[in-house]
Amino acid sequence: MSSSTLVSLPLMKPKDVNTLHLFDLNKLQRQSNIPTQFMWPKEDMVGTDGVFDEPLIDLEGFVKGDEIATAKAIKLVKTACTNHGFFQVINHGVDADLIQAAYREIDTIFELPFNKKLDFRRKSDGYAGFSFADRFTPILPWKETFSFGHRGMNSDLPVVDYFTSTLGQDFEQAGRVYQKYCEKMRGLSLIIMELLALSLGVDRSYYRKFFEDGTSITRCNYYPPCKNSDATFGTGPHTDPNSITILHQDQVGGLEILAGDKWLAVPPRQDALAINIGDTFMAFSNGIYKSCIHRAMVNEERMRRSLVYFVNPKEDIVVRPPEDLVVGSSRVYPDFTWSYLLYFASNHPRTNVRTLENFFPWLLSSQPKVHT
């Protein structure tokens, strides 16, 4: 298939909303015991075994073209991505005041009445809107989310339009904050793509061109306090299906990654952004770089928030590694389009780390029609 191939997605039965359990976590956080739907098996509640303390990657020298700084950044990225798929960057060009403004808008969004948020629930086959711990049924995460998309090359204000049309004119300022936040994240994501390409030994611009006009997804995460925090997760162990994820966590912390066979806590740093490799980029690298297995813990006493930017290629881009990464070795994954993986991930509960393993059998069985 060429990169211009369009596919007809298979029809899928919409989820029966009557079978979904919708919980208002703002009410549940005051209870001494949580509902059983939030209680994970004891074997999944593996304890934290240390702190992630690998070096931060300073992007300033890389962006300026400093050869020594670039060589150091390439080495650190390659080591991190081949081992566990996670690293943190500083001097990334996203202003601290903008990040804090985005957090203030998170508080405003999730303070909306539960019934109003229900009116703008994420649809069964989409990604935008509110989600109320119903995506990972039957084991639920202790969180609420609000998500929206951002098209890379758009020069208008689609994020502002989405906020005002969905939440109302009172949220125009929130839309403007997130519009600017998305634009900054998009610029950073293209820099990260160049760094990843160089670290893999391919042309600097190889990956960047696939993402310049992709629709990325921003997600605001809200984790209320939980009196049974030792029995549930904010988000259970998983990998992200997208290419890379850029995350900022507030001062409460809770992000953990699996490195080797140990769960390591990632201490929050307000000047750092966390980058993790997702399933799609793992396929783009022919399996050389690992999709990061991570989870989010909840706090017994304090609310936790995070800002997540999921970086995606254009929907009809065929995901395949460059020939330089295949010569002398076999292909690890077959070709697929991001639109198919997004559709699969949006319609299947993901309570484990085997998204790609489950995706390819489904893709073959769906027998997609290809239009050129």
UniProtKB/TrEMBL annotation:
GO molecular function, one term: gibberellin 20-oxidase activity
Gene3D superfamilies hit by this protein: B-lactam Antibiotic, Isopenicillin N Synthase, Chain
Keyword Oxidoreductase: yes
Pathway: Hormone biosynthesis; Plant hormone biosynthesis; gibberellin biosynthesis
UniProtKB keywords: Iron, Metal-binding, Oxidoreductase
Any GO BP: gibberellin biosynthetic process
Catalytic activity: gibberellin A12 + 2 2-oxoglutarate + 3 O2 + H(+) = gibberellin A9 + 2 succinate + 3 CO2 + 2 H2O
Listed cofactors: L-ascorbate
Occurrences of domain Fe2OG dioxygenase (ranges): 213-313
InterPro entries registered for this protein in UniProt: DIOX_N, IPNS-like_FE2OG_OXY, IPNS-like_sf, Iron_ascorbate_oxido_reductase, Oxoglu/Fe-dep_dioxygenase_dom
Pfam families named among the record's database cross-references: 2OG-FeII_Oxy, DIOX_N
Similarity comment text for this entry: Belongs to the iron/ascorbate-dependent oxidoreductase family. GA20OX subfamily.
Identification of the protein by name: Gibberellin 20 oxidase 2
Organism this protein belongs to: Hibiscus trionum
